[in-house]
Amino acid sequence: MIKKITLIFTILTSMLFSQEKISIDELLKSNFDNLDIKIEKKSLILTKEDVKNIQTLANTKVGSKIVRYYKVTKNEEILGNAILLKQRIRTKNAAILYIVDANKSMLSTEIVSFKEPSEYKPNKEWTEVLNGKTSEDTLMAGKDIPTISGATLSARAISDAARLALAIVEQKL
């Protein structure tokens, strides 16, 4: 009996927390409307001075000194960058891809992985609020970014990471 309950619980839990696989290359191609773009996967190691400057600009803490980003080009012209950041939401992490155009303006925010229950995951309409924002914008949940009823921590974490992504692009890319 206990084995059956455990099995049912395991199946239900895996269904509740299941993740659809999203290709970062496909996300970038769809956001830059071009299949002929070149995508380079890169890493950036931040110095102590970089961390200090980025934290000051973003008004939030840098979670890791190693930043994964993707440089998007076409015919040697930089179209933009995508910053992949891991952010703790409540007790689990989410991976969010912030796509920034060549003018250092947020083009799109894509939640690549979300380990919290799905009711805490912001919908596409909410993430689109970040589109067009730059490091000049406040991007504070509850101020110029709306909170999400029942998912305030998600809104706060994703908007904090958006400020980090824009600060990294502004300072380092």
Give the tags.
single chain, 173 residues, alpha+beta, five-stranded antiparallel sheet
Distance between the termini: 57 Å
User: What number of structural domains do the residues give?
Assistant: 1
Shape designation: globular
> Helix share of residues?
25-40%
Determine the number of helices (DSSP H or I, runs of at least 4 residues).
5
Which structural class best describes the helix and strand composition? alpha+beta
Largest sheet: 5 strands, antiparallel
> Mean pLDDT score, rounded?
80
Strand content: 25-35%
Order of helices and strands: HHEHEEEEHH
Structure description:
The protein is of the alpha+beta class and 173 residues long. The protein has one domain (21-172). The chain has helices at residues 2-16, 24-31, 48-58, 124-127, 152-172; strands spanning 38-45, 66-74, 77-88, 93-101, 106-114. Strands 1-2-3-4-5 form a five-stranded antiparallel sheet, with helices on both faces. A hairpin with a 4-residue loop joins strand 4 and strand 5 (106-114). The termini are far apart. 29% of the residues are buried.
